[in-house]
Design goal:
heterodimer; A: mainly beta; 10 strands; B: mainly beta; four-stranded antiparallel β-sheet; about 0% helix; globular
Chain lengths: ~120, ~110
Amino acid sequence: QVQLQESGPGLMKPSETLSLSCTVSGGSINNHYWSWIRQPAGKGLEWIGCIHVSGITNYNPSLKSRVTMSVDTSKNDFSLKLRSVTAADTAVYYCARGDWGWDSWGQGTLVTVSS
Amino acid sequence: DIQMTQSPSSLSASVGDRVTITCQASQDITNYLSWYQHKPGKAPKLLIYDASNLETGVPSRFSGSGSGTDFTFTISSLQPEDIATYYCQQYDNLPRTFGGGTTVEI
């Protein structure tokens, strides 16, 4: 059974670049889309975007100008970079398998943006 | 973006009750709709895809129906472990969008 684990900083300052990675174990990163989804405290779920190992990416237009996703097949992981973060980017960030019906998820990592 | 409107935003029910949640899309999404269960501190769990297909391993008390713009999610007999927030999500168009969530309490 595939497992996903997010890693990244817990606390950041405004204007910094958020870098998160998601390690995939128990399965290959090939032949799937991989997504990032976040949930601000007290709010609902927001799709950030997805990437395929071929390099195809789809980003939420609301974040597109600040987001970059990448895949490292040698490490079986994929990454998210979100530039110029603000307090509004404070959220639990999840990685998940798929580009629509996400059947496997990481446990989520809380990222807090505060000066 | 396709807007997904879920109702109610919260509900309280008793063990054994039938629980129904509705989700309305701002435009026709055919049957490209999923339902997720989200418990605090846990990852969301896919329950239903293609509006009515039960994900493998999900108990049969969960079901979904609908097409076009109007969808329904049902728990036929509420169990204590079903306490969670439930989200609908469309994948007809990009960006993928979620409903606002329905918190189910006992």
